[in-house]
User: Which sequence fits this backbone?
């Protein structure tokens, strides 16, 4: 149950947002001033890039301003935070395509918990890492049996293609075919341009 | 953790300045109800008086620019720094609709911390500042303008980088721009100062009125149409087409007799890219030209390539390597 204190602080943000809805830019500035540092810091910890995090927070606030009359949130603070979080996820999925920086991606929930307490309170919340993992699990699950078997041997047990071929007594070409099919499936399921290597990295993390 | 320590951590949290280990530390301590109440009280306090640091302040300016553009055009500009597009995102910060109310608001906010106000532009963006005395300043990319409260007898600002000034006339209070090398003193004029530290060359160009430039023990007076150019340990005054010096305000970039390395540094600033220049032999080549910001960095490099033996490759996001092909000695 939210404490009284929380209610009060939410009312403050929500009250501000009522003013923002009427087109009050000063109120919007104040809203930005209250949340910029925290949201930017959160995004920075997730995307691991201080420039990108600023862009993300910018985009969120521009978007909020643009759609201010349509936003009907009971909890503006949580709403802002979720927008930033989702943009971060989009970015993680997207940017690794651009320049193979997947090694920089280490999604740590240690930052997230503090933000969850502050922004989300008692509302339901899924950790970023969980969201990505669930998606990965689902994708693996959806693969045909043989394909899944090859994929797991390759990416989780770290076997070489040749070793897999020997173990399963199949042609190495078939191993390659299964793997490529699995990766295709990943591409498709992560609707954005998620770089396969990123997923694999996450898989490695999650197997440990 | 005692209350004071907790208070400090919470404060840093609101400023986005927690050290890596403090996230968990604070998370753990918030399990305690008293600490949690303390946190919520601090949060309300912060909401009443949030403080902007330089980064937040810069982002607020950027946001205002975006909103301004949105309001005027009913279209959201691309905010992500897609680097080929950045040149068209010429940020005129705090301009138009916002100048009055927002500027006053921001100034009063920052004054609570110190009497100093800092305006800063990142690479790839420009900004416009209206000072309290009515003077107008356009800041070029990657530049910084600092000013203290103006007194009734002196208006002083400090500049790094490049700016174009339209100084409001006030006979009683000279307007002084300080750079690392010199002070430029005026009463009411229009002039451009280019003083990027890394260019090894500074230029002061006068469009109208009169300015006095103080350099160590030397004083020089400039007339309209003249430019004072400083290099290392010497300076000279040249007759120039002064209007060109400020055309960057309209997104038109002019450069005259500059070295390849300076040109690359300017391109870095304008397009917000890192350019690594390899095999650069020095100053034999000098560049003169004009381009508008509609061109992409690739078009600009392609144009340079026509006259200069260079090749370039994109090495990363917003990173380019430019190599000069050395002439083979026979």
Assistant:
């Amino acid at each position: 149950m939210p404490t009284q204190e929380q209610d009060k602080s939410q009312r403050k943000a929500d009250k501000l947002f009522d003013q923002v809805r009427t087109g009050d830019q000063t109120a919007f500035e104040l809203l930005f001033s209250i949340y910029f540092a925290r949201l930017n810091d959160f995004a920075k910890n997730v995307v691991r890039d201080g420039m990108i995090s600023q862009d993300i927070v910018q985009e969120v606030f521009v978007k909020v301003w643009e759609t201010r009359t349509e936003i009907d949130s009971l909890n503006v603070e949580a709403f802002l935070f979720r927008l930033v979080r989702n943009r971060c996820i989009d970015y993680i999925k997207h940017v690794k395509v651009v320049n193979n920086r997947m090694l920089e991606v280490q999604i740590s929930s240690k930052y997230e918990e503090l933000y969850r307490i502050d922004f989300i309170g008692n509302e339901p919340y899924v950790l970023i890492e969980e969201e990505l993992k669930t998606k990965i699990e689902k994708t693996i699950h959806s693969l045909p049996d043989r394909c899944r078997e090859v994929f797991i041997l390759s990416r989780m047990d770290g076997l070489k293609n040749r070793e897999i071929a020997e173990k399963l007594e199949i042609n190495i070409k078939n191993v390659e075919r299964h793997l490529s099919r699995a990766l295709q499936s990943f591409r498709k399921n992560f609707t954005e341009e998620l770089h396969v290597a990123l997923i694999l990295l996450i898989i490695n993390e999650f197997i440990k | 953790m005692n209350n004071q320590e907790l208070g400090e951590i919470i404060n840093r949290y609101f400023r986005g300045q927690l050290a890596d280990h403090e996230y968990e530390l604070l998370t753990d301590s918030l399990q305690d109800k008293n600490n949690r109440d303390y946190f919520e009280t601090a949060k309300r306090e912060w909401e009443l008086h949030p403080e902007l640091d330089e980064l937040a302040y810069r982002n607020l300016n950027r946001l205002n620019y975006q909103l301004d553009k949105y309001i005027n055009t009913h279209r959201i500009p691309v905010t992500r720094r897609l680097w080929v597009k950045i040149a068209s995102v010429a940020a005129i910060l705090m301009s138009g609709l916002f100048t009055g109310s927002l500027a006053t608001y921001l100034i009063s906010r920052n004054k609570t911390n110190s009497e100093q106000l800092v305006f800063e532009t990142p690479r790839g963006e420009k900004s416009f500042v209206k000072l309290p005395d009515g003077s107008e300043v356009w800041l070029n990319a990657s530049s910084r303008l600092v000013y203290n409260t103006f007194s009734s007898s002196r208006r002083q600002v400090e500049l790094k980088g490049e700016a174009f000034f339209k100084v409001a006339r006030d006979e009683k209070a000279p307007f002084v721009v300080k750079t690392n090398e010199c002070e430029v003193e005026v009463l009411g004029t229009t002039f451009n100062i280019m003083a990027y530290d890394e260019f090894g060359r500074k230029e002061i160009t006068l469009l109208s009125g009169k300015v006095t430039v103080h350099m160590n023990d030397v004083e020089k007076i400039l007339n309209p149409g003249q430019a004072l150019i400083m290099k290392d340990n010497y300076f000279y005054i040249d007759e120039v087409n002064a209007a060109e010096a400020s055309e960057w305000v309209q997104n038109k970039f002019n450069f005259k007799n500059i070295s390849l390395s300076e040109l690359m540094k300017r391109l870095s600033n304008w397009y917000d890219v890192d350019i690594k220049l390899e095999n650069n032999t020095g100053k034999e080549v000098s560049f003169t030209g004009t381009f508008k910001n509609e061109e992409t960095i690739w078009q600009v490099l392609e144009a340079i390539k026509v006259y200069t033996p260079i090749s370039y490759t994109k090495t990363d996001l917003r990173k380019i390597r430019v190599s000069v092909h050395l002439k083979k000695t026979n």
User: Anything to note?
Assistant: The interface with chain B takes residues 3, 5-6, 8-9, 12-13, 25-26, 28-30, 32-34, 36-38, 40-41, 44, 51, 54-55, 57-59, 61-63, 65-66, 95, 98-99, 110-111, 113-114, 117-118 of chain A (CB under 8 Å). Chain A has a mean pLDDT of 76.
